Each structure stands twice: as C-alpha cells, then as structure tokens.
Amino acid sequence: MSEGQLVQRRKKAEEPVNEKQDEASGDSAQSSDQEDNDKGTRLTLMEQILLLGLKDREGYTSFWNDCISSGLRGCVLVELVLRGRIQLEGGGMRRKNLLNRKVTVKSSEPTGDVILDEALRHMKETNPPETVTSWIEYLSGETWNPLKLRYQLRNVRERLAKNLVEKGVLTTDKQNFLLFEITTHPLSDGNQKTKLIKEVQESVLGKWTNDVHRMDKKMLSLIVLAHASDVLENAFAPLSDQDYEVAMKRVRSLLDLDYDQQAEKKGNDVMWAVFEAFSK
C-alpha cells in the first residue's frame, strides 16, 4: 500500500471520531442551554395547574370552577413531599389507611417558595400533627374550626399568577366587570403553555407506560391533580377524538388505582394520600 493511501485511510479513520467529539460538544452545550432555560421557567405544580386553568386572553380561571382552590392545596402537599420536606408517620402506623396517618415534618429547611414555606411553617408548628385531608381543608380555609382558620393560605391564585408574571409566562392587565374592576393575568408566553399541554398529552399517549411507578412523579401528580382541579380537560381539548378516548381511558386507569397498595410498593406516602383524598 502506498504512503498516499495510508494517509487517506488514516484521515477517514479519524473523521468519525472528530464528528462524534463535535456532536458530543454540541450536545453538551445544548444540554447546558436547555438547563439554563428550564431553570428560568421551571414551574411548580401549583403554577402548572393554574396555567392549565387560566383563560389565555381573559387571564382568569372559570368562575364556575370550585375545585381548583382545594386542588392547588393538594399540589402544595405534593411539592413539599417531592422536595423531601414532609412525610407520613411511619413505624407501627404503616398499617393504617393513608388518610388516617398524620403528616410530619421531615425537614424544615426553606424551599425558597413563599407559599410552600408558609405551609411548611404551619405544619411544623402544629402539635399534634394532622392528616392530609385535614391539611387540604385547613390550607383552603374550608374548616368549621375557627382555631384552624389561621392556617389558610390566602390569595394563592393571585400569588401564583404574579410568580408566572415574573417568569415571563403571564402579563398583568385590568378588566371591568360591571360595577368593579379586577386584575387579570393574560398569557404572555404561549410557548410555555403549549409545551406544558404537549407534555401532559404525551405522558398518556406516546410516552405512556402501564407501570405507574415508572412514570415521573411530578407528571403523575400533575395529571391526577389537574383532574381533581377540573382543568385536565383543557389539556386534552386539542386532541383528535381517537387520541382523546385513549388519553381519558389511561387517566381513568390512574384514578382507579388502589393508592394504599401503591404506597406500600414504592413509598411517597404523602403523594398517594393526596390522590386518595381527592378520590373520595
């Protein structure tokens, strides 16, 4: 073999390696950019539920939706458990039904989210501890016990909307309703809501898995709590009739699970207890 042929062969052998290195470098940069973008617009469960429920142009949730308030409080509890702040009492209590077990504070370290930290502070100061169902009622202000009204998280929707304004997802406006004027928050960045809706759709279509424990816990919680908040329909409305039927059938399979049984398998007890509370 001549020296020229050897040089040619050597060049060919080196080309794929260099291409792979360039691709790897490009992927790394793209991943880094993606992480930066995600950090800038990363939404909490509460913000995602509100975004699904908001009318894009009007900038407010349906006046007929009386479920979203308690649904958002359920999101607060799930966010706290996903961040490792709360848990259900364990030991000998594990044989109890999920809804009979008390919520205990695992870590009181601030989360950096004002609403979550406010709820966490209430839980830490409460003795004896309360159940998941009780906390959803207390945080919503839906209790007959006047001593528990101090636990209510006030103006949650307005505070979440302001968070979304700061993240560039919503904007602020005013709208007149006959005798009074209200602050509204119309959609500013349509891409964020479109992306959220597509992720919800894909989780029960293209990325569906029959094993609930292989699902992303936050997405699973979003689906169940969006249904409890009566806003899931907004994510499925753009689907074709066929895809809609498939999506709803799979959502129903999640809603029909034995949550006590699922908690025994993989933990995350508070999350399953919240699901159970809304299934009643």
Briefly say what this structure is.
This protein is mostly helical. Helices cover 57% and strands 6% of the residues. β3 (173-177) and β4 (180-184) form a beta hairpin.
Structure description:
By secondary structure, the chain is mainly alpha-helical. The chain has helices spanning 3-41, 45-53, 68-82, 114-125, 132-140, 156-166, 190-203, 217-228, 232-236, 241-255, 259-266, 269-279; strands spanning 86-88, 103-105, 173-177, 180-184. Helix 2 runs antiparallel to helix 3 (68-82). It is globular, with a radius of gyration of 23 Å. Mean pLDDT is 85; it is low at 1-40. Residues 12-23 have a biased composition (Basic and acidic residues). InterPro entries: GPP34-like, GPP34-like_sf.
CATH architecture identity of the domain at 43-188 and 257-277? Orthogonal Bundle
CATH class of the domain at 43-188 and 257-277: Mainly Alpha
Q: Quote the CATH topology of the domain at 43-188 and 257-277.
A: yeast vps74-n-term truncation variant fold
Largest sheet: 2 strands, antiparallel
pLDDT averaged residue by residue: 85
Distance between the termini: 80 Å
Shape: globular
Count of distinct strands: 4
Sketch the topology as an H/E string, one letter per element.
HHHEEHHHEEHHHHHH
Structural class: mainly alpha
Helix content: 55-70%
Cα gyration radius (Å): 23 Å
